[in-house]
Amino acid sequence: MNPLAIVGAFVITLSFLSYGIGSISLVRFNIVGRIVVAFLSMGVILDIIAITLMILGSKGSPFTLHGFLGATAFIVMLVDAIWSWKMYIANGRDCKARKNHIIYTKAAYGFWVVAYLTGSLIVIWR
């Protein structure tokens, strides 16, 4: 496996953990606060880095089923982070999360888990 792809796989795991901490905190405590937006943002930034590294380190085309799932999961994740930032800025620190935002965050995290697991399975089966 290409060293860039290996580093990308490591960074994607850090993104998975960061975004997971932010998402689970938002859902568990129903609050969009400093910690939530920080972890969601870090998850997005790390995901951008990981996607770039994995594309550069991959021999194949990024236009695969996993590439589509990953890109879609990233967009869903980015929308969640932007939505959280908008709520945080508009309503002040530690604002109460709305029910539709909590549902979206759960769905976004679940979709991200599916994309992460499909990528992991692809690496294992190669």
TrEMBL record:
The chain crosses the membrane at residues 6-29, 36-57, 63-83, 103-125. It comes from Draconibacterium orientale. Keywords: Membrane, Transmembrane, Transmembrane helix. This is Uncharacterized protein.
